[in-house]
Amino acid sequence: MKNINQGCDLYRKIYGGERITPKEALELFSWDIIDLGMAGDMRRRSIFPKEEVGFIVDRIINFTNICEAACAFCAFHARANLIQSYELTYDDILRKIEELIAAGGTQVMLQGGLHPEYGLNRYVDMVKAVKSRFPEIYLHSFSPAEIMHMSQKSSLPIDAVIKALKGAGLDSVPGASDLLVDRIRKMVSPKKITKDKWCEVIYCLWRNNMKSSATMTYGMGETDEEKIEHLRVIRDVQDRTGILRAFIPWSFSPSKTRMANILPATGIEYLKIVSIARIFLDNITYIQAGWLTEGLKLAQIALAMGVNDMGGVLMEEVVVKATGIKTRTNSRELVEVIKNAGKNPVQRDSQYRAIKIHN
Questions:
Q1: Labelling 54: which of 78, 183, 272, 357 has CA 20 to 30 A away?
Q2: CB neighbourhood size of 29 (10 A)
Q3: Domains of the chain
C-alpha cells in the first residue's frame, strides 16, 4: 500500500478530527495494521483523553434457551439439539443475583430466547421480581429482538412495551445488533427482526428516555462493504438519538452452529474492525474489547488501537460457551490485563461512572 504518511488526504482527515465517509472507511481495510491502530488510538484520545480502561462486574442470566428464531449462527437455542431446553424460575434468577451481589457485582443482563409462549406480562413480572428484591441492581436487559417479540406476542406497540418494562424497573436495553445488513440477516437469522426494525426499537427507547448500546457480529460471510454499512447504520442512529453508550464488536464463533463450515475471523481482522470502528464512529465514546470471543491477549492489544473499556466479567455467560469457546475472566485478571497494557484500571457502574480506581 502507499505510505499514508506522505500526504494521504484520508490520513490528514483522520488526524484532523474530521468525519470520514463510508467509502473512506472502506479504504482503511487496506492500511497497514500498525498505522491503522495508531490512527484508532489517536481518535480514541480525541474523544476520551484519559488513559483509563473501565470494566463492570456483571452477570448474564439466560432465563431460557427455547427460541422460535432458531438462528443458523446460534448453538445455544434448544432446537440446535446441543443443549437440553430449559426455563429458569424467578427463584432461580434471584439466587443467581444473590451470588452476583456477594461477588461485588452491580449489573444484571437478563436475556433469553424468543420463547413462543412468553408475552409482555412474563417479562414485566420478571423485572418486578428482580427489582422488588434487589432495587439496587441495575437491569441492562433483553434486546431489540426480544422487545419486538414482546410487542408481537402481546399485540402492543413497541412504545407501550418499553413503557411497561421501564415502569417495572428496567434500566436500559443492550442493543444486540448482530449485523445490520438484511442480506446477511435473511441468510443467518430470517426469523429475527430486520435492520429497520432494530432501528425502530432504538428510536422507541430514545423516545422513552432509555439508553442502549450497539454490537457487531462479523465473520458470517459479509463483505467489507457490508461491515461498513453496519457501522453507518449505527452512526446514523447515534446522530439522531445519542443513546448508544458503547459499541462492542466480536467475531462469529462458527463451531457447533449450522454455519460450522465458515472459517473463523482472524485476530488481525478483529483489530482492524476495532480501529476502523473507532475512527468511523466519532459519536460513540466507549468501544469495548470483545475478550470473550477474541481472548484476553488480543483484547489487551486492542486497548492500544481505539478500545477504552473491557466490558463486563460476564459471570455465567453460556451462549458463546455453547460454541466451544471457554474464555473466562474475573475482576483481578482484568485489572492485571489493563495494567499490563499501560492503562489505569477502573471498576465502573452501568453509566460508566467510577466505583473503584485500581492503583
A1: 272
A2: 15
A3: 9-357 (3.20.20.70)
